[in-house]
Every structure is written in structure tokens, then in C-alpha cells.
Design a protein that fits this description.
The protein has 1 helix and 15 strands. With 254 residues, it is mostly beta strands. Strands 1, 2, 3, 4, 5, 6 and 7 form a 7-stranded mixed β-sheet that branches. It is elongated.
């Protein structure tokens, strides 16, 4: 028995002297990434240092993704995170987190090729009066199918079914929300927004009026994601304004 313990002790001593056999870390620091994401169209995986993370015994996620992912930083080594489509392994976005900010947030919204990064940076506008409705817009898929040469901001002229202008939103871009427009709710609740080049009444697609049809909701402030559409041949067919980010996330108010 003494001989057995002697052999074990010698093996442990040898292993402790070989840096290639046992990892040695100068520093260790706890880290945490708060993950808040939503995918409308595809199942996704969150890959951390080439391995999928597990949340509630699942590694593949559709719809809402909610996790406070805890780990350890070793020797100041960064944590590399990829958001990938499960079926195709297409990387939608890559991140690198370091212990310079050990507690960080990763938030995103994904729908049919549209990826909005750091979505929780946006603020929700508050209605000033009862009986009104309000809108602001972001257009991340601008020019995806229309392929125009215009890359500047857009304005949206909002009219009711009789053609009366209810409001105008300015500076719609691909990476930030426009100004906020609030106006009285009326019936019928159908409204149409015409997309024009900022500061003009000229369509952003030459020779074609672009209208986005929406339904008003009383006493609701909306954050609409505009999406270019394509037909079966792959040609541009119009713009949708269906997705309201308020339906998916809790935003701080302005």
C-alpha cells in the first residue's frame, strides 16, 4: 500500500512539472454576458469559443432567446461569440468580449435576413395624449432588392384613407430609428405611408411610388421595422411595415 501511494505521489509531481499536461492560469476573472435575442424566421445557435451554449437543456433556439451566460476569463483571453443559423451554419454576427468589461450585454433581432444588432440600445417614445397613436421606423433592408443608388435618409409621409396627411417621420435610416410622429387615432384605422427622399416628395425609387400600408392602434407607440419584399422572380415588389419591435422586447423610454 505504501508503494502504491509513493507511485501516485511521483506521478502527480511529474504532471505538476509539465506545463503541456496541465493548464496554468495566471489570472481568473468571472464574466457574464446577458443575451437577449429574438429570431422570427430561423433557428439559431450561440457559439462560444466554437461550442454551442446550452440554455434550459437546449442548444438551438427559435423565437425568444433569454440567458445570463456566466463563465470565467482565463489569462485575459477574449470570449468569441458567433450567432449562426442552425441549418446552414451561416454566421450572422461575430462578437469578441474581454475582461475589460466583464459584465456585458448581447442583444439582437433577426428576421428573414435582417439582423439588428444591439437592439436594446433603442428607446421607446411615450405618447403625450390619450386617443393617439405614434410611430417611428428603421429600415435595415433598404436597397436589398430595390438596388437603388440612393443611400441617404428617407422620410415617411403618413396619410389616412381620404389622403389627409396625419404626420411625417424624418430621417429613416438602416441603422437607427427615425423621428417620432404622434397623431390622433381615427376610423377606419388604415393608414398609408409614402417613402420619399429626405426633405423632398421624391420617391427613393425613381418613377415608382412606394407606399407602406399599416393599421393604427389607439394608445400605442410603435417601433416599426420596414422590410423590402421580393416576388417569386427575386425582383423588388414593395415594402412591408409589419414588425413592431415592442412586441418582442421591453425597451426603456426616452
Amino acid at each position: 500500500m505504501k508503494r502504491f501511494f509513493l507511485i501516485i505521489s511521483l506521478l502527480l509531481l511529474l504532471l505538476s512539472c509539465d506545463d503541456n499536461l496541465l493548464p496554468y492560469y495566471d489570472t481568473q476573472q468571472p464574466g457574464e454576458i446577458v443575451i437577449r435575442g429574438y429570431s422570427v424566421s430561423d433557428s439559431l445557435q450561440v457559439i462560444v469559443d466554437e461550442a454551442p451554449i446550452i440554455i434550459n437543456e437546449k442548444s438551438v433556439f427559435l423565437k425568444y432567446m433569454d440567458s445570463d451566460y456566466e463563465f470565467v476569463y482565463y489569462n485575459d483571453k477574449a470570449k468569441n461569440v458567433d450567432i449562426v443559423i442552425n441549418e446552414t451554419w451561416e454566421i450572422l454576427k461575430s462578437y469578441s468580449f474581454t475582461n475589460n468589461k466583464p459584465f456585458d450585454t448581447l442583444s439582437f433581432f433577426y428576421s428573414n435576413g435582417t439582423y439588428i444588432d444591439n437592439v436594446l440600445r433603442f428607446k421607446k417614445s411615450v405618447l403625450n395624449e390619450q386617443g393617439t397613436t405614434g410611430y417611428k421606423f428603421i429600415f435595415p433592408s433598404l436597397n436589398r432588392y430595390s438596388n437603388t443608388n440612393y443611400t441617404g435618409p428617407l422620410d415617411g409621409i403618413i396619410r389616412n384613407t381620404s389622403g389627409t396627411v396625419l404626420g411625417t417621420v424624418e430621417n429613416i435610416t438602416s441603422d437607427n430609428f427615425s423621428s417620432f410622429s404622434e397623431f390622433s387615432f381615427s376610423s377606419p384605422p388604415i393608414i398609408k405611408m409614402e417613402l420619399v427622399k429626405h426633405g423632398t416628395t421624391e420617391s427613393y425609387i425613381a418613377g415608382r411610388q412606394i407606399l407602406v400600408t399599416m393599421v393604427m392602434q389607439a394608445n400605442k407607440s410603435r417601433m416599426i421595422v420596414l422590410e423590402e419584399k421580393q416576388d417569386e422572380s427575386g425582383s423588388f415588389s414593395g415594402v412591408d411595415g409589419i414588425v413592431d419591435l415592442n412586441d418582442y422586447f421591453e425597451f426603456e423610454t426616452e
